[in-house]
Structures are given as structure tokens and as C-alpha cells.
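G., the chain you wanted modeled:
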Amino acid sequence: PVSSSLHGSRFLTGGLGGSLTHQCFYSPTPANKYERKYWCKMTPKGVCYTIISSSSHTSSEYQGRVSLRDSPQNGTFAVTMTGLRSSDAGTYRCGIGSTNHGLHVSLNLTVLADATVSRPTQLIQGQLHGSVTVLCPSGDAQGDKKRFWCKVGRSSCALIASSDGYVDRRYQGRILITPRESSGAFKVLINDLKKEDSGLYLCGTRGLRAQDSPQEVVLQVATAPALPRRPKFLSGTVGGSLSFQCHHDPKGSYEKKYLCRWTGGSCPVLLDDQGFVLEAYEGRVQMSSSDPERGTYAVVLRQLREEDEGWYWCGARSGHAELTAPLKLLIHREICSSRGPGTATPVRPTPASPAAHSTPRHRSMADVMGTVPTGTTMGTVPTDTTMGTVPTGTTVGTVPTGTTVGTVPTGSSTLLSTATPGTSATSPGEAFQESSSGQSRLLPALLPALLLLICITTAVLTLAKTKLRKKPGEAGSTSGSLEPALARAGLSPGREERLEETPGPGEAQEFRMGSGKCGWVFAGAGTARVISL
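Predicted structure as C-alpha cells:
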């Protein structure tokens, strides 16, 4: 099928007795290349009579003064008419197809006695996601006229960008009208080309009263082969740094490579490969490396600020042509959560773990337990060990100096229950230390201390039961006799303490001392083991 991409001028003006050439531009697809091209004139009845076509037909009325030249490799065919007459004025079609009702562009021809010669239509071809440079000669070096770029529609030319800073929302960050040169000419730079960018455009200058004769430009965007689509958005954090690569054609020869900041239709250069750095960015931006063989150069931006957010262009200049590519930088502010006096840790919001327990009060294990002296060594508690119970009212001592405490196995959940009256929150071998990530770990080697505690407790209980059997009626003084015994064992009644810590992701932790029991629960994947003391 014939491609729907066909463009050409909508208005032609010729001088009486003179000549003109009209170009029609089409996508150079196989279907278009070998299809019939035609030039016909509309009659008042709505019929378009063929004047000339690529199938070797020429109307007898125009014999000797009309010609058609097709250039399939460029995607254009040109119609030239000479010896213009007043009767030649009217509406014409240039098109592609087996009939004159196929794909076409309509235009109006005016024949005047003193017509000025219009500029030929300029053809610009680009690749999908690539960039193009359009040179717009104005012929007027005065700087008080507004430069514009618009796209021709059925009945009007829709403004896309102008030198006063206006940019259509669909072209934000990807079009630029350069300042006027000494000759009065200016350039229009467009990047990140899209398929819908193909079409007929006008560029020129417009004064307070009238506009100069605009330049017609046909832009064709080839959809294949397409350039690789590279990342268009970058993300950074306030105070951080960012490094990215700019790409250019490794086969090209460029006199300058640069980075500019696009804003409001202008793009001031921040730095280039010749050593220039904009004063406001000195010390913060650098072109760190360049690889001409691969067609890349790297840019580093340091000490990022919120105002750095926006559009940037990578550019490479070769004569009047400029290869450009847009990048949008997004700046984020990092959220900090205070962990203690004079300390703050950056945090990122994460979903809560299903195993996590919310508690009314969160306390650091290190705050409650204190720290264990460096260099201490003790064994670890097997996860399937079950031990005896500790009587109510016992106070657990501290870990002796020189002890190193083990850690809770990875992936386990330690449940710490609520303390009850008459118990203390500190027990031998149960000291915790806090890692740099803020998660509690069971200090190594609890077994020797626990065995010692159990032996002492068992001996005290045995002694107490023996005394009770020998001296009936002294049951009421059992509590009093136990206290000295507990004191001799290094144990003393303590105060109530509730010890809880917010678990890390995937861990639920609780520590309970009360009702004569102290227990750990190690929860793995679908399992739970309890150690009762």
C-alpha cells in the first residue's frame, strides 16, 4: 500500500511568461518508489485532469512546456512548468497512485505579471529519535523581528516555537530557535524526532506590521532503521552527584561538543570540550572523558541542587549542523530519620513486613542492656534446645567481662514477651548489641552462662524443698529463706522492665521475663522453636 506521507507547498506564485518548479515529497518506501506519480488540474466540476504522469502521459495542451522528474532515492518528484499563462492559474494536485483520486496534496497556483520568485522548498530528512538542523535564511539582519517556526495544516500554520520564548507543549525540551546570525539567518534545532513530526513547515521572521517571505521546509522522519532509544530521564539527590554519557556519530567530525541547559526556548552552554565552564557551574560540572571511536563523552554533575532539575541537551557541532539529544534531570530530597543525639540516617519508605509488630514504645536494645566488653567469647544456643524454668522473683546477672556474645541465626524471628513484676530485664548470656543497620542481634555463646544459671537454680530449689520437708510449718517463710539463697547465688529481686524493639524486615522480636519463664522463639520459614528457661 501507498504510504500516507506526502508533502508539498500549498501555494505557488509564478510570473507571466516565466517558469516555476514544484516539488512533492514522499516517504521512500518500496510502494511509493515504484508507484505512478501524477500532476493534474482541477476543473469547476471537481474532476482532476492529468497534465503529466510518470507513466509517460502528457496532456496535448501542455506539450513542450511541462516535465516531471522522479527521484525515488530521495523520495521526491518535481514538476516544472514554463511559458506560464494566465489560464494556468488554478488548483492542482501532485500525487501518487494508479488514479488521480489517490494520495495527493492540493495547491493553488497564482500567475502575476510582476511575481517575485519564491524560495525553493527545503527538504530535511531525519531518523526516529534523532535530531535535525534547519537553516532559515531571513535576508533581514534587523534584530527587532520575531523568529518563528510553524507547521502547515489544511487552512493555517500552527505556531510551534518563536524567539520570544513560546514553545508548544508537545515540543517542550526538544526544540530550539538559535539567535540571529550576522546575515540575519537563524537555525531551528529539533531532537527526539517522532513519526508525527513529518510534514510541511514554515520558518521566517515577523515584524509588527507584516512578515517576511517564509521559507518552506518539508521534514521527513524515517521510521526505519531507527536509532537506539537511550534513557531520556535521569534521577539525582540533593547534595549528591550524577554521571551520564552523551552520544554522537563516531564517523562525524565535530568542532565542538557541549552540554547546555534548555529553558524557555533557549539553551545556554554550561561547558564544552574546549575548557569553557559557565561561572555558576564552576567546580560542579566536568566533562570527565571522551571516546571518539565509540562516539561518546561523559559528563559529571556534582553537589546537586533542587534548582538543577530540568532539561539538558548534549550537543556536537559540525559547521551549520548540530547533533543534539535531550535529557531531563529529576532531583529528589532524601528523607532522614533521627536515630540518636547528633545522628541521622537517610531512609526510604518501604512496605511494612507482615511479620513486624507495632509497639506503643520502641527502645534500642543497646540503651536497655548496655554494651558487652570487647573480647568476650561464649558458645551459641542450639535452636532446638529446651531448658528448665527460672523461679519468679529472680534477677539475672550480667555477662562477665571478656565474653563475646553470639547472634540470632539469619532469617529467624525472636519474640520478646512482656515483663512481669519481680523480674529484671537483664540476664546472663542474653545481652544484645545493635548492628550498624539498627537491627538487634543475640550476643554469642549463651550456653555456658545458661547452664551455670540452671545448675545454681536447681541446687537452690532442691535445698529449699528439702528444708520444707524437714520443717513443716515453715512454708510461710519459704520466700524469706529463698532470698538469702538467691543472694548467695548472685541473684536478686529486680524491677519490672518492658523490653521491646522494632524488628527489621522479615523479623518479629519479643522478649518476655515473667511468671518464672524466659523464652526465645526463633521463627524460620514456617517454623518456630521455643527455648524455655
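The helical segments are 30-33, 365-369, 447-470, 478-488.

Shout if anything looks off.
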